[in-house]
């Protein structure tokens, strides 16, 4: 579904990514872990079209999309969800969700089904569907950001720190949400500081250090390599 090969990218003359290669298959969750500054966010942003790579290639569904912009990639089904909250504060919660489906042209039936699923996982968004998004807490805005991506039905979801700003109690529902999302066929690539929790749902784990991939293996192999035990779920 997604193949990254020999990717290099950075900021101005500062190189960050060095020869990064990995792939993510349909229906699997791939965890990207690594210390602060390892280049995880830069990697997601480069794949998502926000940073132009200086070398290497990105293939999505067998097509070369190296250097494509988010405007090209989102309608094709490759979607980046950044950390921090990027909702439209003056619009209602429901309108924010609706906007998520615009670029991908999700059909009405698929949209309604997706909204039902969202309201099941995040009942607070149903309760506040008509309230302005600015009235939501940080964690609720994060739920809304994920929901906007969900209704766009991406084939590849790149998700930076889905847990950011969320109470720990919300982590298992978020992880389960991502898991059911992957089960529907989406390749989910997540950067997550809560490695134990993410490992519980990930099929594979990739470890980055100073802009390079230093380990890539199954979740069990990742746990054996790093000594990190997946949280029970
Ligand atoms: N906009 C930017 N301009 C210049 N350098 C940047 C920029 N963003 C990140 N960097 C640098 O690139 C390197 C990789 O940062 P990146 O945010 O990709 O790491 P990360 O693994 O996601 O870390 P974190 O977990 O702290 O977000 C760091 O040295 C960082 O200082």
UniProtKB/TrEMBL annotation:
One MF term in the entry's GO annotations: ATP hydrolysis activity
InterPro entries membership: AAA+_ATPase, ABC_transporter-like_ATP-bd, ABC_transporter-like_CS, BCAA_Transport_ATP-bd_LivF, P-loop_NTPase
Cited CDD domains: ABC_TM1139_LivF_branched
Keywords, in A-Z order: Amino-acid transport, ATP-binding, Nucleotide-binding, Transport
Domain of life: Bacteria
One GO term (biological process): L-amino acid transport
Keyword match Transport: yes
Domain named ABC transporter: residues: 2-231
Protein family: Belongs to the ABC transporter superfamily.
PANTHER family listed in its UniProt record: HIGH-AFFINITY BRANCHED-CHAIN AMINO ACID TRANSPORT ATP-BINDING PROTEIN LIVF
Name of the protein in question: ABC transporter ATP-binding protein
């Amino acid at each position: 579904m997604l193949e990254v090969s020999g990717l290099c990218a950075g900021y101005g003359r500062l190189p960050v990514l060095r020869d990064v290669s990995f792939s993510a298959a349909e229906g699997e969750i791939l965890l990207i872990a690594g210390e602060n500054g390892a280049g995880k966010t830069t990697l997601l942003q480069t794949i998502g079209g926000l940073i132009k790579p200086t070398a290497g290639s990105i293939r999505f569904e067998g097509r070369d999309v190296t250097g494509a912009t988010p405007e090209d990639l989102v309608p094709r089904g490759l979607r980046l969800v950044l950390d921090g909250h990027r909702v439209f504060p003056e619009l209602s919660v429901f309108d924010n969700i609706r906007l998520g489906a615009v670029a991908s042209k999700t059909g009405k039936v698929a949209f309604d089904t997706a909204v039902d699923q969202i309201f099941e996982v995040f009942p607070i968004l149903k309760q506040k569907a008509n309230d302005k998004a600015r009235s939501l807490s940080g964690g609720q805005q994060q739920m809304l950001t994920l929901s906007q991506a969900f209704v766009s039905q991406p084939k590849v979801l790149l998700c930076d720190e889905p847990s950011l700003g969320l109470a720990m109690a919300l982590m298992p529902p978020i992880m389960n949400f991502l898991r059911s999302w992957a089960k529907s066929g989406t390749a989910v690539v997540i950067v997550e500081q809560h490695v134990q929790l993410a490992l519980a749902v990930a099929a594979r784990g990739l470890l980055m250090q100073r802009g390079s991939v230093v380990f890539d293996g199954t979740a069990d192999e990742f746990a054996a390599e790093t000594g990190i035990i997946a949280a029970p779920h």
